[in-house]
Amino acid sequence: MMAQYLEIKGRYADALLFYRMGDFYEMFFDDAEAAAAALDIALTKRGQHLGQDIPMCGVPVHSAEGYLLTLIRKGFRVAIAEQMEDPAEAKKRGSKSVVARDVVRLVTPGTLTEESLLEARRHNFLAAWSEVRDEAALTWVDISTGEFRVVPCPLSRLAPELARLAPREVVVSEAKEADLAGIVYDSGAAMTPLSRGSFDSTGAEKRLCDLYDVATLDAFGAFDRAETSAMGAIVEYLDLTQRGKLPLLRPPVKEAPGGSVQIDAATRRNLEITQALSGGRDGSLIAAIDRTVTAGGARLLERRLSAPSRNLEEIHARLEAVRYFVSEARLAECLRADLRKTPDMDRALSRLALDRGGPRDLTAIRAGLAEAGRMAGRLSDECPDRIARAAADLLGFDDLVAFLNDALVAEPPLLVRDGGFIAAGHNAELDEARQLRDEGRGVIAKMQADYAAQTGIQSLKIKHNNVLGYFIETTVTHAEKMLSAPLNETFIHRQTTANQVRFTTVPLSEMETKILNAGNLALEIEKRLYDGLKAMILDASALISLAARALAEIDLTAALADLARGEDWCEPQVDESRAFEIEGGRHPVVERALKRSGEPFIANDCALTEGDTPAIWLLTGPNMAGKSTFLRQNALIALLAQAGSFVPARRAHIGLVSQLFSRVGAADDLARGRSTFMVEMVETAAILNQADDRALVILDEIGRGTATYDGLSIAWATLEHLHDVNRARALFATHYHEMTALSQKLDGVDNATVAVKEWEGEVIFLHEVRKGAADRSYGVQVARLAGLPTAVVERAKVVLDALEKGEREGGTRKHTLIDDLPLFSAAPVTPPRPAKGPSEVEERLTSLHPDEMTPLEALAALYDLKSMIGD
Length: 871
Known about the structure:
Function: This protein is involved in the repair of mismatches in DNA. It is possible that it carries out the mismatch recognition step. This protein has a weak ATPase activity.
Number of helices: 31
Oligomer: single chain
Protein name: DNA mismatch repair protein MutS
Family: Belongs to the DNA mismatch repair MutS family.
Binding site for ATP: 621-628
Strand content: 15-25%
Low-confidence stretches: 811-818, 821-827
Domain DNA mismatch repair proteins mutS family: 695-711
CATH class of the largest domain: Alpha Beta
């Protein structure tokens, strides 16, 4: 056995080997030690190898999926070796023969299909990148849904594309492994190198043609060599990991480069589009706006937010569909009620195609198609073209649904081996087997009554024992009759005892065999019928996939309409102009959080264009006043509009945005040796080197990570470059108040500030953005609000006053800051002593009750208090 284990392990050296032994998957040697530590299970030993104990651990087969999920999340790959024959068959070859085993599947992050291993509302992409001479391409699949796409992708675009897709695993040529490691690592994906031969474009084309059973790929589109290479490599990897059982992949779709808004990884992270900075979904844009009721709709929403369209026709069609459901609220609610009963047909299809499905996947298809037909009936000819096309894709499944209704029970078991999922009356042979299995005694009793009537012997009995099986028993007196003609032609003598004679018949022997095998026969018939139903569904898989996509489209459109109605969002005007005019704009995530606490969100306007002149708002104001919120909300409004959604504003006019850049917040990257300032500069450089005149740029506090004059210089030059070279629409927040003078020098720059109000030394944040410039940052007041010790705050005020006084007086003295203040020679402010309790005057005041005093008593009390504190 150990020789077999080592032989299989040698073929999958880079994976943990789950070696099936009865009801357990067992691991040995280094695999056992690694798995025991990762899964927190017991490490034991089994026998010896080369004189050393063999470490061993195992997990039960019935609960293996949970352990698989843990291992995959911790970065392991798992090869699953199953028993390929019955142990009884192995024993026929000899008592010491080993049961044949082989790997049936290689489980990796990008090839998961089990419901328990996947997030229902998110894609699980496997990607591959290939470069052939001066061409390069990125392809990706989700084998759990059949999604298969490819896009031209030079190396410079690989990082943004991976940030958009967030794949779990990326396949690369081993020749490019070193060059791509950093990019793939930054995307959060696992990287899997394949041989150069896997990326050969000629072999790749043949693999793809074999997969789709076509002579040429021309029917799917024109693919260059790099695209064909990448697609072929991903198919080969799937063939390797699925051990020949290829998933049900839709025909590949080629995406046009530049079809969506360019958003780099830093911008996605800063804007928290699909993931919050904390790492989870809570607090992200998608978590705040997701009102879809199906898994397919949720996945479509994530795709739309990750890749807002730049195609005006597509944007307008999406907005028209949302507008229709906004106006037809009752229809939308009825559809949403239907959608809540719709299972995830895409993933059910995938499991069936990979032989990992079960009866519940059959009923999921049945339920989904039945709901699809009902929904199509609700949609009239008056709905927009986009919805009408979706409705048309929901039709044509009546015969299939009727057949599945006839064939399947309402609530089937999870596994085929459990049986009981085929409905009674669907198959006569199965009904007979079940009757024999469940009603064997009744069948025998009926035969007994028939034989008693045939012989006229009412005392005749059919009995059973372990030696003879079923037999007919009668007395010796009656036996003579059965041994005589013509009954002796039917009844065959078996045994004579002292008082009884036993017989059998050919029908009774046959019935005995049927009864004994009825349970296994019923299950075998159900398995055969399951295979037939599965084949019937897979034959219609292309149309079922279209229906699943149509359901996702309707779900997302109705969800966006529900969001628009519920949150008072407006339909944006999106056109070819350079406009960016927002009235009453709001941040959807912040507004949602404030609603929970019962606080209102202060809406603000933003107008970045005047005619054809590029416009930049230079935004000043104190910390905590809402500058970052204002920056982000305008970026998110643009993103939502081009994703095809209504937006959180009273009115929005947005000229098509080609690129979205955001440099908000600060973080270091210690793993790559980058300080906070270096990260800031790298991200700023990427913006200045890429932004075109249709970009929307959001910049916050450029230059703050270095010395004051260095930072001011960098921020100043950055703003000039955006204005003169990039000519982009931009919001530029800064604490360098000196930069407000640029509005007089640069025509396209305007000053804006977040308003505050001072009252008795306190600062009150109004969260209102107004035209004009701030002259202070109120940092000391914010520090006090943050809880800095009083002594520190008071000392900071002294230093600030001295600095501001020195700046006003100017001068040419070459003294240091220490000399000017002097900070370290001056006596620090004495912190106030903590109060020791109420004073005598306070105690006297507490004892007074003005409502119960006469004017004379009140005057006397006032004189007493005055005397207590002195004249």
